Amino acid sequence: MDARRGQEAPTDLLTEVRPAARHRVPARPRRCAPTGVARRPALLLSALLAGGVAAAVLGVHPPVASAGDSSVLEVQEALLTGDEGLELKPQASVTVAEAQARLQEVAASRAARAEAEAAAREAARPKFVLPVDGARLTSGYGSRWGTFHYGIDLAAPMRTPEYAAGDGVVLRAGAASGFGLAVYILHGNGDVTVYGHMDEILVEPGQYVDAGETIALLGNRGQSTGPHLHFEVHEGGEDGERINPLTWLRQRGVSV
């Protein structure tokens, strides 16, 4: 047995026990936002929107940025501010008074244009017309068969349209002795034109008609020997002198 058993072992035989050096974890480097984030917020916004749409389709919830995730927060801040490379201009506007003035200007312009167009149409339309287009004169104004014929007869096929010879107001429209059916129209100068023997009347008393407007369909009613229009002119009113319709029409630029 070793006489030195139980004695303290020499220091050279002991392995020097030193505390193990602590392993230092290197600090996590801070990630910076990608270069040009603030300069291209539209591209980043498009990328984030595209990612959000894809996540919604796949049913995946994107991670929520935490306070410690500096890169995501910086990108979001860049998208919200976008203060680098973006020029902000004041909103353009006008006053209410200016807007109202512009409205009045446009309304006045449109009214003037509509008035000019109406005047052009009025100037272009005929003021007097032949009561029946393509008619044949079969009897004139004057003595006939021992009596006096106070109008002219214009023959045409049954139910040919008959027109107002000039602008006026319908005085009478309906049954008339000798005419079967008749229409009386008062014109602006006081003259009255008479239309007889029609098959059907298309106007009524009090109605305003323009020259050339259809008032009836030609017929053979009353004392008639065939389809025709009997046309008279009463000068100065319904009870005025019955004058030659050919002369009256000719003075207004209408020939038969």
UniProtKB/TrEMBL annotation:
Molecular function GO terms recorded: metalloendopeptidase activity
Domain M23ase beta-sheet core: 148-245
Pfam family for this entry, one: Peptidase_M23
Organism field: Blastococcus mobilis
Protein name: Peptidase family M23
Lineage: Bacteria, Bacillati, Actinomycetota, Actinomycetes, Geodermatophilales
InterPro entries in the cross-refs: Cell_wall_metabolism_enzyme (IPR050570), Dup_hybrid_motif (IPR011055), M23ase_b-sheet_dom (IPR016047)
